[in-house]
Amino acid sequence: MAAGQRGGWQPPLHRCGVSATWQAVRAAVLDRIRARDWPPGARIPDEADLAAEFGCARATVNRALRDLAAAGLLERRRRGGTRVSALPVRRAVLSIPVIRAEVAARGMAHGYRLLHDTAGEEPGVGPVRLVRALHTADGAPFCLEDRWISAAAVPGLAAADFAAVSANEWLVGNAPFTHGEIAFTAAAADPADARDLGCAPGAPVLTVLRRTWAGALPVTALTLTHAPGHRVTATL
Amino acid sequence: MAAGQRGGWQPPLHRCGVSATWQAVRAAVLDRIRARDWPPGARIPDEADLAAEFGCARATVNRALRDLAAAGLLERRRRGGTRVSALPVRRAVLSIPVIRAEVAARGMAHGYRLLHDTAGEEPGVGPVRLVRALHTADGAPFCLEDRWISAAAVPGLAAADFAAVSANEWLVGNAPFTHGEIAFTAAAADPADARDLGCAPGAPVLTVLRRTWAGALPVTALTLTHAPGHRVTATL
DNA sequence: GAGTGGTCTAGACCACCAA
DNA sequence: TGGTGGTCTAGACCACTCC
């Protein structure tokens, strides 16, 4: 679904109740699913029927049902109709801001220090720039950013000054990507990370691995090692 | 957008190229953003102008732009127009299947054992059922499920047999919720967790905290403690 | 083959908010 | 207050896929 529609929301009262909005249709369908009026696995009426029932256009019903399908509550197939998911795979939207914005959103002052910046070679990628930096929040270590950046995929890379602007932020504006993946895992802080993060060696730290591509070309891969206690949250 | 449209996709060739599809419009706009034809922060033409340019209906442009806004690449405001995000907050969609399905998706056999099941009281919630269970994958510990379930919010709770069906799965069909939150953090395995998971005490483990509500009523809260090495992944 | 969802169109009204 | 996005409509054609 459109993430922008999440959060506090008021139903628009167009046309003063003359006809249903797509949100109203979505709510009505959701109620029937939850009331087990339409039990898991059951097929629900087709769009034309629902449109007639709700007194709206088919396009309105379509939008409502598409939204519920995107949320994992319905499964739709051409010719096969629409069914209530038997085992709904709920989906949560994870926001991934620039680290500086993430720290600022917590009401803290963001700091940044470049730790290492060298040239290297990444197998299967070619020449890369290797960067390690520390982000701080109100002066305390927030997370370590370890990454390589492909020289081939990022024109102007050599000229970037990562002492002045974090690679995290510079890349946002200078290295567009088409797709990527992200993974979360727990790890024990290794001695170097522990030193830079100011925590005990072996302390459990949340690491975020991210990798992006521009088409078939790898752009960058990074590991964010967060200070102990860090949480990543999302809304269901 | 509809999740069903992700993945390998071929542009529909309706009308043999006479007019643009919304995906084509989205791709064209994306190209201009990436080419910095429309730099970060810049205002882009309004929907009517783009519709004229692409030779399609405004609704088609609207759908394309809404999709890009949902992905965090555009910011739209009535009267204010549409702008390219200066600091795009990328969004990733996290799938949250039932644990049994998650294990099965990895091609492993799911196992389940109830460890504890008692009545209790949760401050601010009232009487709850406290459940602790272990999920296994091919016989090896996969994750610990620790949760409370509100008796007030879940009719039929007392009759549920969590030795036969995991609470995780039973709740999917029996305790609909309206909203919830999820958080990831790294922790050190405490002695009890270490024993049940078969890992060393103090080992770094990924914990997932989840909490759901039905309207204003808390439904359940759980902690999933995953075996060391576990990863949670999503696509950008 | 035929039923269902996916999408496009052209027009319309409305809500919101920046100029 | 006017311009912009948000949405609805009624109709249409098409793609997919189950029967």
Note down, in words, how this protein is organized.
- The structure is a homodimer of 236-residue chains.
- The first copy, chain A, has helices at 22-34, 47-54, 58-70, 99-105, 167-174, 191-197, and strands at residues 43-44, 74-77, 81-84, 90-96, 110-122, 126-137, 140-150, 179-188, 204-214, 217-226, 231-235.
- A six-stranded antiparallel sheet of chain A has the order 5-6-7-10-9-8. A three-stranded antiparallel sheet of chain A has the order 1-3-2.
- The first copy, chain A, contains six helices and eleven strands.
- The first copy, chain A, has two domains: 3-84, Orthogonal Bundle (Arc Repressor Mutant, subunit A), CATH 1.10.10.10; 99-226, 3-Layer(aba) Sandwich (Chorismate lyase).
- The first copy, chain A, has 236 residues and is α+β, with helices and mostly antiparallel strands.
- In chain A, a hairpin with a 3-residue loop joins β2 (74-77) and β3.
- Residues 1-17 of chain A have low confidence and may be disordered.
- The two termini of chain A are 12 Å apart.
- The first copy, chain A, is elongated and about 65 Å long.
- The interface between A and B is large, with 60 and 60 residues.
- Chain B binds a DNA duplex (19 and 19 nucleotides) through α3.
Question: How do the helices and strands line up, and which of them pair or pack?
Answer:
The structure is a homodimer of 236-residue chains.
Chain A: H1 22-34, E1 43-44, H2 47-54, H3 58-70, E2 74-77, E3 81-84, E4 90-96, H4 99-105, E5 110-122, E6 126-137, E7 140-150, H5 167-174, E8 179-188, H6 191-197, E9 204-214, E10 217-226, E11 231-235
Antiparallel strand pairs in A: 1-3, 2-3, 5-6, 6-7, 7-10, 8-9, 9-10
Helix pairs in contact in A: 1-3, 2-3
Chain B binds a DNA duplex (19 and 19 nucleotides) through helix 3.
